[in-house]
Amino acid sequence: MKRTALSLLMVLSMLLTAAQSATQHKDSTSVPSMVRFGLQYRSDYYFMGRADSAKAPYLTPSIAYFHKSGLFVSSNISYLTVRNQGRIDLVTLSGGYDYYHKNLAAGVSVSEYFFSDSSFAIQAEMSTYMSAYVGYDFKPIMIVVDAGMGVSQNVDYFLGIELSRSFYLIRDKLRLTPSFYTNFGTQNYYREYYSNRSITTGGNSGKGKDGSGDGKGNDPNNGNSDTGPDSDGDGGGGGSGGTGGTGGSGDTGGTGDTGGTTPPTTTIITEATTLNSEKFQVMNYELSLQASYRLNDFRFITSATVLFPVNPSTVVTDQGTYTEELKTGFFWTVGIRYTLHK
User: FRET partner for 109 with CA separation of 20 to 30 A, picked from 79, 92, 131, 222?
Assistant: First the structure.
């Protein structure tokens, strides 16, 4: 426990590492305090290259307070919109500090996650996420580097590098931002998900070992983090990947003594884990396009992200060992935000 606490403090001190926030071209101390209300729909839940084969679309209301000093606090409630499974699946509480000066942006944040016991989000075994970032706008391109640490039963470490550029149209009311993002990280959280949840929740519940789900991924704060005075806060980074999902068919029964045909059987997995989860490696690459339109104190935001996962995991079950099949992933978001200036 002491080792974990020390690691948390170390991540907080990493002010010169990076994140996916867009920078402001002015000193953060010149921005007044504000309260921000948001509502976002996200088509699927992604985190660091892995997710359950069952989709997890979220409708997320949020509220955040930004002090002119750069300090902020925020809260999100993510409602799972899957038919017959509607529930509050995740509550996120976050706080941190952002600094902006001319072309430089930097900051730190801490998020606490409260997942439903029934959640099949791949990040569901993680309780705390801490991150720090630094970015600089070189005019032709904005480069942001972020480092994070996730705490579950063990500790995971993450690193991301983003290249982006913003284009302003319609008297600067419309902003288009294409970006390219690369994720690195460890996967202890993924092993714990496989061990504790994948057999009893989501698309893997009671399923065979042969299938493999669609690629998934998400930014560490579920794409709803609203940090920064002008951050659109609908996130795109965070990973992609696939994990076992659809059931494999058992052997078809032959002709019985009575002449009837025995129905097909399905192999049921009761135990599962992954190998080499502590290895730090590239998890995925992402291409994203975000568009936001400002109308007085409202901002309308949408984005689309394509994810290319790499380095599949080796999954060990009580039925055997196999390598997960990774597929290109995709998700989109749409949202609205209202800012109340103090």
Answer: 79
